[in-house]
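Check my protein:
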Amino acid sequence: MRFVATLLGSCALLALAACAERETRALKFANGQPWSEILLEDGVAQGRWRTWYENGRSRADGRYVNGLRNGLWLTWWENGQKQSDGRYVNGRQDGQWTHWFASGQMASQGSFVDGVLEGEWTDWYGDGKKRAQVTFHHGLQDLVVRSYWPNGALQHEWTYQSGTLDGPCRDYREDGSALGMGEHRAGKRVGTWVVFRADGSVDERYSGQYEDGQRLPTQKAQ
C-alpha cells in the first residue's frame, strides 16, 4: 500500500513538472497593455508569437518551431500601416520580402534563398520614385546596379561581378547631365576616367589614366 502511494505521488510530481515545462509567457506595458505573448516549451519558443505597441496596435506576428522562426511573419508601424511581409524557413528568410514606409508607400522588395539575397531587389523613395535596382547572386551584387535621384533621374550605373566593381561605371547629376565615367577591373580603376563640370567641359583635375587603381602621372599617361 505504501508502494502504491509512493508511486501515485511520483506520478503526480511528474505531471506537475510536465505542466511547468510548458507556459505562455506574457509581458505588459506599465499601463497594463500587452507587449508580447509567446508559448515556451522547456524554455524554447513554440507556436505563435505576437507583440503590440503601447497604443494596442499590433507590432509583429509570426510563429516559432523549436525556437526558430518559420512561416509568414508580419510587422506593422505604430500608425497601423504594414511595415514588412515575408516568410522564414528554419530561422532564415526565404522567398519574397516586402517593406513599406509608415506612409504606406512601398520601400523595398526582393527575394531571399535560405537567408541570402537572391535575384532583383528594388528600393524606392518615400514619394514612390525608384531609388535603386540591384541584382544579387548568392548575396553578392552582380550585373548592372542602378540608383536614382529623388526626382527619378539616374544617379549611378555601376557594373558588378560577384559583388566587386568590374566593368563600366557612370555617374550623373540630378539634372541628367554626365558627372563622370570610367571602368573598374576587379574593384580597381583602370583605363580612362573622365569627370565633367556642370557646363559639360572636362575637369582635368580629376580626369586621367588609371592602372591597377592608381592614377598615372600626366607624362606617363601621354
Notes: The longest strand covers residues 44-52. The chain has two helices and 17 strands.
